[in-house]
Amino acid sequence: MDEAVVTALITAGAAIEGGALTGVFALASTKRQAAASCAAGERQAAAAWEA
Question: pTM for this one?
Answer without folding.
Answer: 0.64
